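Input chain follows. Return structure tokens only.
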Amino acid sequence: MKIICPYCQNSFIPKRIDAVYCCPSHKQMAYKVRKMNLSVNLKSMHELQLSKNDTEPSTKYLNENEEALAKSIYPSTDGSQQNQYPSIKENAINYMSTKIIYPSTKKNLEDENPSTKMIYPSTEVSGQSQKPSTNYPSIDALNVNNNAGRDLEAQYKHYKSPFVDALIELTDERDNISKLSPLFWNDATGIYLWVSTRFKCLAECLLTFSEMKTIKVDDLKEICNAFTLLIRSNYFKSLQNYPYANEILELRESLKKICQSADENETLKFRLLPQNKKELIATRWELHYYAPKVNFSELSFKE
């Protein structure tokens, strides 16, 4: 029975029942042609995807009413404005580029105290006097300067950060640590621990989103739904004098507006205004005394 070779279009009698090509060389050439066509198709698909992503994603702030204020604080895309507060990445670069000069602790003990100078006996070998090798550990290397730490501390230059000062002022003004202490002390049912653990995780997620270049709307919807489940839970309804109750409600409403105004499968820039960022950072620091750090995927927001 004759069959037609897909590569050369000539008929031939196959020697094997599963043969498709007339010879191994035509089989190899057909494979190369398929591989080349596949690479061309992938390249065209990649160019099409890049053309779809050319449009810059829109920037969404947690509080849309203060978007005008955010434009005056955050830098524009053309670099005409500068940020009031440096980002975490800039602070890390400045810290790593800072040079620390350590004071020298080496002293010449022999010059200061001649009595400490070591004297080695000479030896006679073949009528010639030779001095033994003096490759012993240096006393200077064993000397420890007790004032080295104080000298280093004196050389360190302290820099003031307006953002850190504002955080300290905010935590002192709210004084939530002292408010949380009696609540957790008398928390026999564990409702405050349950709510605080989840709210701390959500605050961490929002801070992480604000540092990312872009995020998907679906990820923001997951956080918004988690806030909704947290508010609808019986644990949240049973809270009394909880200092973060109003903050949780306001965050949920702001996220809900952003998710409803965004298009499906949209990629956007999520940013926090300085006041919102300070409140979330202060909340995360206050709750670390009482609630453990748990990943979002490890928590269930349903009762």
